[in-house]
Design brief:
Layout (H helix, E strand, L loop, with lengths): L10 H11 L3 H14 L4 H13 L3 H14 L4 H13 L3 H14 L3 H13 L3 H14 L4 H13 L3 H8 L24 E8 L4 H7 L3 H4 L3 E8 L15 E4 L9 E4 L3 H5 L16 H11 L6 E6 L9 H4 L3 H8 L4 E5 L7 H4 L8 E2 L7 H10 L2 E5 L2 H8 L4 E5 L20 E5 L7 H16 L5
Parallel strand pairs: 1-2, 1-4, 2-3, 5-6, 5-8, 6-7, 8-9, 9-10
């Protein structure tokens, strides 16, 4: 959605845009600051600096830059769009929506209709967003971003046949990068006598939610070979419907066709009634044995796992994640023992906190998702912000309370407290963008009730 400069860009602006696209954000900020110093009267210089600051994680400063750009060039569509982007990152969705509506009315192009649809989607106005994306596609049928985002709204609304078709356009976007090159054709779900290689895309959770469709499709092919990232190899060992699971990047066997894993749901689902149960995942006995002494520290207390952040490289992680501090209120509930399942850079928050004295760190003991599965299996409940562990716990049938941002992943529908994708999952939703306090208050009340009753989740 960003618009750093007009189409005809002087060389400094090309360098800023290139640095942003390459995710060299400090370089982009430095270049844009230099442009502002040299040409402080140029609206596009301030606009470029605003974009660079926003993608660097400073949307509040970005808003000041875009407002300066508007002072210099009143009504600039580029500055208005980027001001809306920054407002959206600050959870000021009404302001962002008003800005984008003004741009779309001023310049009713496919791009601005698509930008408006994106903001309306984040504001939870799904049917309005759908209308905006429809308008964009009427003007430009080949607009892949509008089609992909429309597909996710259709999936959220339960219109799976249309949704999966539109979602296939994700490979035309730059975020996923080019589709891996195979010497064989892309499998479209029709019968194939030979081997079909399936390869993962996007996150670990997306792989876990997709492999449930393998048994339903197994009869259409001679053999399924599933490529997996190293962290999932043991977890997917013996997976129903997969004839072999191989490490991604190793030499592939001879095959007749290939497909990304997230194409599989569209080959099966025409309505929610077609949804298979979660996949049966492998929990190795040796992983159970490794986790047992750590879990035993809870004694007779309720064993509750926590996760406060997904992958920090995920574009929307700032909206769906929060900090460890919010989870500490759960430790105050009598009869509860917390276990951290957090992995990645955000795990350092526990090591730096005094909470390390009363929260058992399981995440540092988990080498892959099979270890994490053994830990989850031994707990009574997992409370977390949305990430791959939610899919893992849901696949294992473990009670999991998923604390969701206002604009949650399409999988969780519009406003339900449960999801058919994972029957053991309970959803706690933000009532407004950025409103975590009510979510954690509701989860704590539910945990207190659970602990008081002396029940397991």
């Amino acid at each position: 959605m960003s618009e750093p400069t007009p189409a005809a860009q002087p060389r400094p602006f090309e360098a800023i845009l290139a640095a942003i696209e390459a995710k060299r954000y400090p370089e982009a900020v430095a270049l844009a600051e230099a442009a502002v110093r040299e040409t402080p009267e140029r609206s596009d210089a301030w606009n470029a600096l605003g974009v660079a600051l926003r993608v660097s994680g400073d949307p509040r400063a970005a808003m000041g830059c875009h407002r300066r750009a508007l002072d210099l060039t009143p009504g600039s569509a580029a500055a208005l769009v980027n001001l809306g982007n920054a407002a959206l990152e600050l959870d000021r969705v009404d302001e962002a929506g008003a800005l984008l509506r003004a741009v779309a009315a001023q310049r009713p192009t496919a791009k601005y209709q698509s930008d408006l649809g994106h903001v309306l989607n984040d504001a939870g106005l799904y049917r309005d967003a759908l209308a905006a994306f429809d308008a964009a596609l009427a003007l430009e049928p080949g607009n892949a971003r509008a089609r992909c985002e429309r597909g996710q709204i259709l999936l959220r609304l339960g219109r799976h046949s249309e949704g999966w078709s539109d979602f296939a356009s994700r490979w035309e976007l730059t975020e996923l990068g080019p589709m891996p090159k195979y010497p064989t054709p892309l499998w479209d779900g029709r019968p194939v006598e030979g081997t079909v290689i399936l390869w993962p895309e996007q996150g670990f959770g997306d792989a876990m939610l997709s492999v449930r469709f393998l048994p339903a499709l197994r009869g259409r092919v001679g053999r399924f070979v599933l490529g997996a990232k190293p962290e999932l190899l043991r977890l997917f060992s013996g997976l129903p419907g997969a004839d072999a699971v191989v490490r991604l990047g190793t030499q592939q066997p001879k095959h007749a066709a290939h497909a990304p894993l997230m194409n599989l749901p569209g080959m099966v689902m025409r309505s929610p009634a077609d949804l298979p149960p979660p996949a049966r995942l492998n929990v190795p006995p040796e992983a159970r044995a490794r986790m047992a002494p750590l879990i035993a520290r809870a004694g007779k207390r309720l064993k509750v796992g926590i996760v406060w952040s997904g992958s920090v490289t995920f574009k929307a992680n700032a909206q769906r994640a929060t900090g460890l501090d919010r989870f500490l209120s759960f430790a105050e509930v009598p009869g509860v023992q917390l276990f951290s399942l957090q992995k990645g850079p955000r795990a350092s928050e526990l090591a730096a906190s005094g909470a390390r004295n009363f929260i058992v760190d399981l995440g540092s003991q988990c080498e892959d998702f099979a270890d994490t599965a053994a830990a989850v299996e031994a707990l009574d409940l997992v409370i977390m912000t949305d990430s791959s562990v939610a899919h893992l716990a849901g696949s294992l049938g473990k009670p999991v309370w998923n604390l969701l941002p206002f604009a949650a992943y399409w999988l969780y529908g519009q406003d339900a407290t449960t999801t058919p994708w994972y029957p053991s999952m309970r959803l706690f939703r933000q009532p407004a963008p950025g409103a975590w306090d009510p979510v954690f208050a509701a989860a704590r009340r539910a945990l207190e009730e659970l602990a008081r009753g002396g029940r397991r989740a």
